[in-house]
Amino acid sequence: GWNSELMVRPLTVHPYYTARVHLIKAGIVQFRDVFLNDSGVYELTTDYLGPVLRNNNRDVFEVRVFEPVSQPIIRVSDAFTNVTLNCSVSKGTGIAFYWKKTTYLESENFTSSGSVLVVKSGCEEQAFEYSCVAENPISQQTSVPVTIKLCAESQDRDRRRWILLLSLIPALLVASVLCYSLWWWRRRKPCFMCPQSNTTTNI
Q1: Which of 3, 102, 151, 186 could bridge 49 with an S-S bond, Cβ 3.0-4.6 Å?
Q2: How far is the C-alpha of 101 from the C-alpha of 23, rounded, in Å?
């Protein structure tokens, strides 16, 4: 607080912030040499000590300290029905991610609440480039784009046909082995129900 009629303005600051908090003028405080753990809610109280009685002012404000983001990296996971893109950064706080899709003709932005983008397999002939953008209030970085070419309709049908054919081969092999084993077992099994021959050969 300070005396409104005197030039001397006593300033009371928490010992932890004594060397870093400076009063520029009435109501304006400068916070120097901030760290990430300085983020939080602070209170500024102004007491008037002059002959005129005035209520003190109490202001509450929030300080948010951000670390600049590093360049994002995209990891690609390819499944049968879709492709999953996972974007991550090694540094940065308060990060928001969004995706940029680029073709030969146009560029589109994808807003996403997370860092994962799932691209469903379709029937497109042209290739697409996907870039991940990571940003916070003080910095922005863009990843190296990755190229994804979605299968054409004919290629998709051929792939399903080959997968179905390959899945039938083990079943056919098992059935063949079982049939052969059954035939061999029946051939080797002695016939107890067969009539015995009563023919006697005389010499």
Answers
A1: 3
A2: 48
